[in-house]
Amino acid sequence: MTTEAKRTIAAVRADLAAKEVSTRELVADSYARIERENPRLNAFLALSPERAYEQADRIDQMVARGEDLPPLAGLPLAIKDVLATRGIPTTCGSRILENYRPPYDATCVERLESAGAVVLGKTNCDEFAMGSSSENAAYGPVRDAVAPDRVPGGSSGGSAAAVAAGLAVAALGTDTGGSVRQPGALCGIPALMPTYGRVSRYGLIAFASSLDRVGPMTTSVADAAALLGVIAGRDPRDATSAAVPVPDYVAELDKPVSGLRIGVPREYFGEGMDAGVRERVEAAIARLEQLGCRRVELEMPNTDYAIATYYLIATAEASSNLARYDGVRYGLRVPSDTLAGMYRETRGTGFGAEVKRRIMLGTYALSAGYYEAYYLKAQKVRALIARDFHQAFEKADLIVTPTSPVPAFRLGERTTDPLAMYLADIYTVTGSLAGVPGISVPCGNTSEGLPVGLQIFGPHFGEALVLCLAHAFERAFASEA
Ligand code: GLN
Predict the structure, then answer these.
(1) Active-site residue 80, yes or no?
(2) 40 CA → ligand 1 middle, Å
(3) How many helices (H) and strands (E) does the chain have?
(4) At a CB cut-off of 8 Å and minimum separation 6, what does 201 contact?
(5) Is-catalytic flag, 6?
(6) Is the beta carbon of 59 within 6 A of some atom in ligand 1?
């Protein structure tokens, strides 16, 4: 049986098929790890053993009957707490949804379960996915699995820590401005943000609807490909999900990468980048060149405006999306003598400081008199940033950059300076605004032993190519180590 921290989907399936282990045992093993490690990591907010063992028994019966196993048979899976799970607490890391149990499953959860995966529970995150460190979490911060005095990144920090510490073999995160890729980078695991529209958002509790995406966080690029293959595709319950055919991502992983043009945008290697990060990313690019990729220098001149644009659009959409938490329909209600008082008390008590800051920023940007100056302007700049990507993909097949300018930072180090926290999203928000897919793949550690991520962007619906290069890099890198 595979007991080491880095378990993969293929290893789990092989163990099950060879009857080395039962799904029940696998699930029990995951829960034992969680019991041991979670008090320290705070990666899980809720566990769903009843549902997990029911699914485990279903898989074990298939094994007993000698049936063909589904692609994700027995996969111990963690789900970020912004994705709806029927009957299982879904809080978005917020007091305002404390004890909320949705009556339905998110499409991606439903699809993963149908493919044989076992939902272990829900993972901690920044409140409503607003943050880059998992410290804006109402139920306490997540701790980094590698360096316990540091953050795991965010907002999908619980999912990243759970996978990095081997509590789950894979996890779902969500990415609005970097929340899958950045914690993946900081925790040293592959993490994929698919193209906007590639994966259904049905059941993803909205932060910023034009940016929100669901993505896999795994121990290998091949596992990310396998998960994407299951969750991708049109869903009639999400009008923004695209009717674009889903390729066999796993089958395409081994395509040759020699001759691919990899674009290196100048703007992603400027000031503010940690020296250790720069060194690892430069070394990774050199490794890709050794694999036969051709380095192309790029200019993406609107990159500088991406942070401002992102924080206008994301907060504007958030202020509108979060209006629904009024104490009437969901979660927390703090009574008061008047209706307005009840709204005020409920929202004042239920939301944390960062969420309130964003609702205020977003409301301001959308208000009469400021709409043109801020929101509309941001939409125009968003189009320019997307154009940078379109033009870059005329010269290059893929774009490579660092995922985060810094490795995992210390808990509390940035909590008093929201602007510094926002600025660290500089390399991820561009691709979010442009709607393109991007992966973060581990490319070694800094001299302090902190993981660094290489980010690979591809054109719209170019996940197969993104995964292919990430996979080739992962293999070359592993053979080096
Ligand atoms: N760090 C970014 C923010 O705070 C991105 C968060 C996300 O992708 N959900 O908005």
Answers:
(1) yes
(2) 24
(3) 15, 11
(4) 209, 212, 213, 214, 238, 240, 241
(5) no
(6) no
pLDDT tens column, 281-321 = 999 999 999 999 999 999 999 999 999 999 999 999 999 99
- Distance from C-alpha of 137 to C-alpha of 411, rounded to nearest angstrom: 13
Whether residue 155 has a cis bond before it, omega within 30° of 0: yes
Q: Give the count of alpha carbons within 13 A of 48, CB side only.
A: 23
**Residue 421 in tokens:** 């926290």
- Residue 195's identity, in one-letter code, is T
Interval 377-415: pLDDT, tens: 999 999 999 999 999 999 999 999 999 999 999 999 999
**DSSP track, 153-181:** -SSSHHHHHHHHTTSSSEEEEEESSSTTH
Rounded to the nearest 5°, which phi and psi values hold at 13? Answer: -60, -45
Angle between helix 221-231 and 463-480 (nearest 10): 160
Distance of CA 466 to the CA centre of its chain: 16
Distance 207 CA to ligand 1 centre (A): 9
Element (H, E) at 329: none
Q: Which two tokens stand for residue 362?
A: 């977003």
Q: CA angle 324-131-465, nearest 5°? A: 100
Distance CA 106, CA 333 (A): 25
> Please, are residues 63 and 135 in contact by the beta-carbon 8 Å criterion?
no
- Which pLDDT does position 479 carry in this prediction? 80
Quote the radius of gyration of the chain (alpha carbons, Å).
21
- The residues facing 173 across adjacent strands are 215
Yes or no: say if 267 and 300 are a contact pair by the CB < 8 Å rule. Answer: yes
- In which residue are the tokens 């804006």 written? 136
**Tens digits of residue pLDDT in 236-249:** 999 999 999 999 99
For 137-148, give the DSSP string. -TT-----SS-T
Residue 3 has a pLDDT of 42
| Alpha-carbon distances of 105 from 167, 180, 221, 330, 344, rounded to whole Å | 22, 20, 26, 16, 30
Name the token pair of 36. Answer: 């041991």
Residue 337's pLDDT band (cuts 50, 70, 90): very high
Distance CA 429, CA 437 (A): 12
From ligand 1's centre to the CA of 262, what distance in Å?
Answer: 26
Distance CA(277)–CA(270), nearest Å, equals 12
* Location of structure tokens 């139920």: 139
As given in the structure block, the two tokens for residue 134 are 């998992």
Active-site residue, 377 included: no
Q: pTM for the full model?
A: 0.97
What residue owns the CA closest to ligand 1's atom 4?
131
Catalytic residue among 133, 179, 220, 241: 179
